[in-house]
Write a structure and sequence with these properties.
This protein has twelve helices and 16 strands. It is α/β, with parallel strands linked by helices. It has two domains: 166 residues, Rossmann fold, CATH 3.40.50.720; 158 residues, Dihydrodipicolinate Reductase, domain 2. The strands form two sheets. Strands 4-3-2-1-5-6-8-7 form an eight-stranded parallel beta sheet, with helices on both faces. Strands 9, 10, 11, 12, 13, 14, 15 and 16 form an eight-stranded mixed beta sheet that branches. Strand 1, helix 1 and strand 2 form a beta-alpha-beta unit. Helix 1 crosses helix 11 and helix 11 packs across helix 12. The longest helix has 17 residues. Bound molecules: nicotinamide-adenine-dinucleotide. The site of nicotinamide-adenine-dinucleotide has 27 residues, from helix 1.
Length: 335
Amino acid sequence: MSKAKIAVNGYGTIGKRVADAVQAQDDMEIIGVAKTRPNYEAAVAAQLGYDIYTLADRVESFEKAGIPAAGTLDDMVEKADLVVDCTPGGVGESNKAVYEKAGVKAIWQGGEDHELTGFSFNAVSNYEGALGLDFVRVVSCNTTGLCRVIYPIDREFGVKKARITLVRRSADPNDAKKGPINAIVPNPIKLPSHHGPDVKSVLPNINISTMAMKIPTTLMHLHTINLELEKDCTAEDVKEVLGTQSRVRFVGQGITSTAEIIEVARDLKRPRNDMWENCVWDESITIDDGELYFFQAIHQESDVVPENVDAIRAMMELESDGAKSIAKTNKAIGL
Ligand code: NAD
């Protein structure tokens, strides 16, 4: 069977990782990546063997920079079965008309609103709902991390109320413009934050309130999770349920911070130090007065990457069973 032809529009933090993860699968392939500027990332993409496309008025600037473009964005979209739009939040929306005109399927990231596609995706929570769809949004890194734990716990014990605090990295490691900050910034100050409604875009029945702050770090986010449950259970019961989730990794053995988690990713020789799984401190899993508490760390640059691969597989109907797609994606990228 021929491989699904996938294009990536926006080759930044998320786009470059999605391109490599797609290329590692045996049922899909990258036919091109689109960049707006002929910068170092474009040069590396060319070195990695990706065909580079750009906007019609930028072709010359790529030529001048010694990174010849294979064509325009429209050319790339024409050749693809599905485009993964990884342009900055809010920019992706304006590309919808391009994809519609070419009759290609498209995935957007968490920086866009749910309404853009009408379907917000998280593999473990709603894979089957994306089967055959033309337009899907893969939710943000934080929402992905929350859905991955709330969905299985709700299915097993029922979540009466979720109260979450998100301690967020202020910028990605390569983002010299935004960080590091030297402050703790309640963000947003108006409560509750938008993260709860975003979880509800995937899991509409979950009663959830969230608040968030930015802190001076670039490595990962940290979530404090408090879930009021319908059924009585023990911490061991919760560990058993989370232990069945391939994209949840228990951390302990002297790991006391996000710094050591990234060191584990380095030691595992993960590409770009990526930690695709939620990192849950199993020692923190506690039932107190009938409520569940724990800490988890989320690698913002990479946790959505396997989710994009699964979303492609569902939309292209390459696999109808979500669990099988998750296992296939994980194996191919080395998770
Ligand atoms: P980024 O800024 O790292 O990369 C965006 C890329 O798009 C860059 O290569 C940029 O040059 C390019 N670009 C800019 N304008 C463009 C245009 N008009 N057309 C085509 N390309 C254009 O951004 P990112 O962090 O990868 O974020 C992409 C999306 O993923 C956003 O929706 C964001 O909210 C979401 N997301 C980001 C993270 C994260 O932590 N970085 C995590 C999960 C989801």
